[in-house]
Each structure stands twice: as C-alpha cells, then as structure tokens.
Amino acid sequence: MELDEIKRSMLNLLPNATLQLCCYTVVLIVSLMWLMRGTARVLRDSHWELTAKIPPGSRGLPLIGETLHFMAATSSSKGFYDFVHIRQLRYGNCFRTSIFGQTHVFVSSTESAKVVLNNELGKFTKRYIKSIAELVGNDSLLCASHQHHKLIRGRLINLFSTASISSFIKQFDQLIVTTLSGWEHKPTVVVLHEALELICKAMCKMLMSLESGDEVEMLQKDVAHVCEAMIAFPLRLPCTRFYRGLEARKRVMKMLEKKIEERRRGEAYHDDFLQHLLKDNDNACCDEVPPLTDAEIQDNILTMIIAGQDTTASAITWMVKYLDENQHVLHTLRAEQGRIAEKTSHTSSLTLDDLNEMPYASKVVKESLRMASIVAWLPRVALQDCEVQGFKIQKGWNINIDAKSIHLDPTLYNNPTMFIPSRFDGESKPNSFLAFGTGGRTCLGMNMAKAMMLVFLHRLITTYNWTVVNPDSSIEKWALFSRLKSGCPIHVSPIAKDAADA
Ligand code: HEM
C-alpha cells in the first residue's frame, strides 16, 4: 500500500521533474552556445588583431567589455560623452571599445565622416540595438534597413516642404508669444522645461492636431519615459527604466491607433501630418511608391516627437546660456532683432521671409549647435570588412562618427571652446559641421528646428532681458541628448519696462 502511494506520488512528480530536466537542458545548451559564440568571437578578434591594423583601445572585461564604464559616465554629471572624450584623449582620432557585448569604433575626422555618412559604396548602414528598436518601433525611420528607410523617408520628406514649414512658423510664433507673456509673472523660468513643453505642444499640433492640455502632457511624459529607456539597461522587469519605457510606448501607440481610427471613420479632419499620411494611403493606387502602413505611420510619428522635441529644446537651452555668457554677442544680436521687430511690428506673426533676414541670429543658432553638439555621435554599422582612417573595420562592428570631437577640433575651428558666431561668416570646411548629420540620413526636421530656434530667439530678445540664475554646466544624467542638468533657470524682466525705468 505504502509502496503504491510512493509510486503514485512519483508518477505525479514525473511531469514536473521531466519539465525541470528539459528546462535545465535548454538553459545549459543556450549557455554553451552563448559561450561558444563568445569564444569564437574573441578568437576571431584576436586573429584579426594579429593580422591587421585594428583601431587602438581596450576590450575591457570578458563579455561585458567596458559597459560598466559607459554606464558610469551616463549616470554622472559629465554625461555619457565623457566616456568617449577620455578615450579619444588616450587613443587619438580612432579608437575601439566594447559596450553591451558589441564592438564600437569611434572616429573623429572629416574624411571618415564623409566616407561613412555619405556611404557612397554602400558599406555602412544605420542600425540601433534591439532594445532601442523595441522602443521606437521596428518600422521607425531610425531602425529601418536601407531599402525600407528609403521608402519611409520618401514619404515623410513631403511633410517638410517649404509650404508646411511656413505654416508651422506662424503657429509656433503664436504659441511662443502666448507662452512668453506668462513668464514675467514667474519668479524663475527654467528654460529647458518651458522649451520642452512649448515644442511638445507645437509638434503635437503639427503632427496630429493634438491640442488638449491633458493629452499633450500625458504624451510628453510618455515620450520622456521612452527616451530614458533608450539608454537604460534592457531589463524587462517592472520598476526598471526599460520596462517603464516599453509601457509608455504601448500607451502612445494606443493613442495613435485611436486617432487613426477617428480619422478613418471621418469623425475628425485636420490639415496635419497624420492626415497627409493617411491621404497618401488612400491615393496608393495612383502612386508608384507604396504608402506607409498604419504601423509605419504610428512608429514614425513617435520617432519624430522623440527626434525633434528633446533635441530642439536642449539646443534652445544651451543657446540661452551661451548668450548670457557672451554679452557682446547678445548686444549684436539685439541690434539685428530690433531692426526685424520694427519691420514686422505691423504684422501679427513672423514669416519664413523674416527668418531669412536674420543672418547674425542664424550664425548664433549654428554656433550654439556646434558648441552643444546635442547629438554627440552618429552611429552606423559596417556591412562588410573595410578600412576607415587607415584602420581595419570588421563586418558587424559599430562605427560611430564622433561629431562632438569634430566640432571641437582646433584644426577645424580656431578657439573651439569659445562662442564666436562670426566664425561662420565664410564657408565651413566640408563635413566639419555635423549637428544635423550629413548624407542620406541627414536630419529630416533640420529646417524646422532652425526655424524654431530663430523664432524663439527673436521673441525672447525683443520681449525680455534675462539673467541666468544658475551657471552650472553639468549634464543631466540618463539623458539621450546632451541636456543641461540645471535646465538653465533665468530671471526675466520685460524690455519695455526696463526702457521706461531708464
Ligand atoms: C536642434 C534640433 C535637432 C538636432 C540637433 C537634430 C539632429 C539630428 C541628427 C544629428 C540626425 C542624424 C543622425 C544620424 O545621421 O545618425 C537627425 C535625424 C533625424 N531627425 Fe533630427 N535633429 C533636430 C531636430 C529635429 C526635428 C525638429 C525633427 C522632426 C520634426 C527631427 C527629425 C529627425 C528624423 C526623423 C531623423 C532621422 C532621419 C533619417 O534617419 O533619415 N529632428 N537629427
């Protein structure tokens, strides 16, 4: 009887035991395969090192490479670029490291920027790590493979025509005037926070006519979570940054899905990017280029907010700081903007033509972008073994064009750490200004971003005097783009009042 019971309980346990055994075996096999792959890669790399001139640098610890150093820089007040800067000083213009299990080469010369970014021989592509693709979406312009990218970009580029930028400038100008009117009642204005909110509002309106305060605020928070997750360790556990980012992405996708359904049912019609993309979809039969699918539309609307909001807001913040630190530049700028203000006093908002008459302000914008290098490096992947700057690059390696080092190279820019807008009086050396990238992946929103910076500059300069309260230049931790930790708090006083007081 007892023996029978033992047998029965053994039989009950059997499925569990078998399952456990299977699991252990699978884990063992996967671990072995992973180890073998790692070993094969190390052997292949060692062979490569012996036979070719590979970039100098350290591979760091086995398997994790220099990931911990990279993460330490990301969470320090110097920002993640410090990781690159230290190695660039140690090894020179081209060096190699290993982060997140992948080999990364950083190069900082205009010749390599030309070769890699123009990619005339098709040896490089842009590819983000899998975790980033999960956050922005596989159909995002940022992650799409060469052919797919061409197709999506071909569709999106129509949205950035001169006509749509002109109409955007008008909307953006009105939004700024309203925003600035509230500043004089605030004891302190944190430029970064204000700029993020302003640009998020402007982009939500332009992309999908989203104007409800609550919806815009929710979206802004969700986009911030997605951006944070893009540089977080891809650990899919609740409470991690990565998980929060994935959840935020789901909410954004759901909201976009709802908007698309509303438009399809004819419940709403607006003259915005979303409507144009859906219209392309309806007219598909008459067009050679296939229209974007709903998934592509959703991923790329999120991509544009990610690519446009933080970057432009950070650039505006740095620009305000640089101007505060360089009063002689501010003085020249005020004279130019005063003339524009006189000319446009009878019109309700600024136009593209007005912006074209701001040569000095345009140089201030360009110099701010050079100094701040918001997108510090431009990532690509080698599709075949090749040579860059005299060094062998192995197929599959990540090759990053270090735009920040190029922007601060004294052989390209005299006194590179000084804010001198007039340095752009003449032609720049080819591939020495990479704030918006170059080649087939050049920033789609480049003209829109420049327009936003100019409109902001004009309205700020002609409305207020300001002083920066906290001059700290520390960089925000865990930020995808180079952002001031302080957010640049300022005190403002209206120009007209100052003049009356004087
Ligand atoms: C000051 C503000 C901005 C800066 C500094 C900036 C910078 C850049 C850079 C450097 C790239 C190229 C990256 C590479 O080659 O790997 C890029 C790509 C891109 N940017 Fe911007 N950007 C700004 C504003 C905007 C705005 C306002 C939008 C949209 C409205 C936008 C949309 C995009 C898109 C969609 C791409 C991907 C293009 C492609 O892969 O074909 N950006 N941006």
Shape type? globular
The secondary structure category is alpha+beta
Number of domains: 2
Bound molecules: protoporphyrin IX containing FE
The largest beta-sheet arranges its strands as 1-2-8-5-3
CATH second-level architecture of the largest domain: Orthogonal Bundle
Report how far apart the termini are: 107 Å
Number of helices: 18
| Oligomer category | single chain
Q: How big a fraction of the residues is strand?
A: 5-15%
Q: Average the pLDDT over all residues and give the rounded result.
A: 88
CATH superfamily caption of the largest domain: Cytochrome P450
Features of the shown structure:
oxidoreductase activity, acting on paired donors, with incorporation or reduction of molecular oxygen, membrane, 502 residues, binds protoporphyrin IX containing FE, 18 helices, alpha+beta, Cytochrome p450, monooxygenase activity, 5-stranded mixed β-sheet, 2 domains, transmembrane helix, 3-stranded antiparallel β-sheet, globular, 57% helix, 10 strands, iron ion binding
